[in-house]
Amino acid sequence: MMMYWWVIVLVVLVLGISMYAGKNGNVLRRKQKPMDILDERFAKGEVSKEEYEEQKRIINSKN
């Protein structure tokens, strides 16, 4: 009977941690590359085509 309580506590703990990490996606998120970030910003309309091309040129010149 006591073992069941430990299992329940463990399950609740794991669910709590996973829900917290889900809300704060940056906790477990991998680091994005600059080009991926630029592509996302362009897709969202945050940068114009001209800005995109210029920043893409700058990023590629650093490699």
From TrEMBL:
Span of domain SHOCT: 34-59
Protein's name according to its UniProt entry: Putative membrane protein
Organism: Maribacter polysiphoniae
Classification lineage: Bacteria, Pseudomonadati, Bacteroidota, Flavobacteriia, Flavobacteriales
